[in-house]
Amino acid sequence: MYAPSVTLPSILLMPVADSAPKPAPADGVDFDQLVEDYYQNLYKFGYSLAKNEADATDLTQQTFYRFATKGHQLKDLSKVKTWLFTTLYREFLGITRRNKRFTHVELESAGADLPKISPGISRQLDGNSAVEALGQLEERYRAPLTLFYLEDLSYKEIAEALDIPIGTVMSRLSRGKEQLRSILTESTPS
What we know:
About 65% of the residues lie in helices and about 0% in strands. By secondary structure, the protein is mainly α.
């Protein structure tokens, strides 16, 4: 495993423009000394989580950035090490959640997962016709589809918003998509 030297990362050495607000680390904390003391250990922890150098570096730098901007909120300076490691771990969890939700898939390998739509339909569809078709759905199907696709809510968030079980959300999404597909197919001339 590669561990960079304890020199300051270039992103932390970049000059800050006079018009930009200056970071306000915790009172009594020498930021340069803090980076020197914890950079390697935070990097190693980030590497153990992310399993690659670039992501470990990003996590470490993001952690120090957070400290530079929010470190003044830390009341007990004896807990700075814990704060840094917790912050790095939370950054990692946030990135992992985003990556699971928005996975990157090459188009060629996702062909089997794409919906089967004839070429004639895809050429004639536009946003207005999709919204119009959505308006023709029964309310119980329209609401979950709108929340899922247009508002980007998770199943759990939809269940809470509509006060229905998650299984019902999944069922209504599935049936709503079928109705929507049917409406779009019927309204499109072949």
